[in-house]
Write a structure and sequence with these properties.
With 131 residues, the chain is α/β, with parallel strands linked by helices. The protein is 31% helix and 27% strand.
């Protein structure tokens, strides 16, 4: 019996920092990239938009910074994957990252790189979360 392939969407708010494009593009290749440009200056916006086009992803442009949580919600609304990963733009992933996400992430659960605790409350680090 062949293994089923689940689709993965990676939602990333982005503001400036187009120098991160090469590493990000390599890290997310093979997934649906949903990038929310949160008010980048024109130079950065053009580089980010071109990257999303190469990835055949979704580019959402906010003329002003609508802040991180709102941008994540905008991206989630456009994500079509069975698995959604919220990932910062400065994360560099190993080549097997997407395969591991597909294999490990199960319905009804949330995953992150590490579990922390503060004031008796457990939480996941927010720079890369999958569900």
């Amino acid at each position: 019996m062949a293994a089923t392939t689940r689709t993965i969407s990676i939602v990333t708010p982005w503001l400036g920092a187009s120098e991160l494009v090469p590493v990000y593009e390599k890290s997310v290749a093979g997934a649906q990239a949903v990038v929310v440009d949160n008010g980048s200056e024109w130079f950065h916006a053009q580089k980010i938009h071109r990257m999303v086009n190469r990835l055949e992803g979704v580019y959402i442009r906010n003329e002003t910074n609508c802040l991180f949580a709102h941008a994540n919600n905008q991206g989630l609304a456009q994500a079509t994957g069975e698995i959604v990963v919220f990932m910062n733009n400065d994360v560099e992933c190993r080549s097997e990252f997407l395969e591991k996400v597909e294999r490990v992430v199960q319905p009804g659960a949330i995953y992150g790189p590490s579990k922390l605790s503060k004031y008796g409350v457990d939480y996941l680090e927010g720079w890369c979360i999958a569900a």
